[in-house]
Amino acid sequence: GLDDRARTVVAQTLLGAATLLAESGESPAALRRKVTSPGGTTQAACEHMDHADVMTHITEALRAAERRSRELGA
Q: Residue 52 — φ and ψ, nearest 5°?
């Protein structure tokens, strides 16, 4: 069904992106810039996330998870 096809497309997209990142040696930001069309949908989404300071929130969430992992391992 549609859900299965969507899952396959998402999984293949993530696999391709992860492979490219692992093999290229470039930063995620540099790779994203290479595939982002100026004025396109990805650029609009990235600008919105930059404005909303999404990376700060992701970094804080990862730090919280790391702290909790250390607590659980102690």
A: -85, 0
